[in-house]
Amino acid sequence: MPQFGGGVKCPRCKKTVYAAEKKIGPGGDWHARCLVCPDCNKSLDSTTLAEHQGEAYCRACHASRFGPKGLRQGTTMHTEPISAVSSSSASPASAPARASAPAVSSSGPKFCSGCGNKLIAGAKFCPDCGNRV
Description:
By secondary structure, this protein is of the alpha+beta class. 13% of the residues lie in helices and 12% in strands. It is built from 3 helices and 4 strands, in the order ββββααα. The strands form 2 sheets. The chain has a two-stranded antiparallel ribbon. A two-stranded antiparallel sheet has the order 3-4. A hairpin with a 2-residue loop joins strand 3 (49-52) and strand 4 (55-58). The radius of gyration is 24 Å and the shape is elongated.
């Protein structure tokens, strides 16, 4: 804290943060207008932010920027049971075995198109990113 006047400085804009506009974020107190994702400008709070080296990001942008590379969130990998592809000479008799394999139903869990996270049944908005379902 400075010796004369002023107060705690916002990590993003380096200006004084007063009590009426204070939000707690990575590295201390932030202005409410400064605590936004630098990639998508989404307003952040303690439940929606992810921190990386003192910078605040929304969970979706943090995952896409710093998450594992390769298979991204929201992408699914479809596989068949090993028994369905193990025989090289497929006969019509093996067709019912494939049909009895678990199928993906449309009534299963739904995922957000914005962030790829699982949605709560009957929800109108994604609880993580706020996108409309």
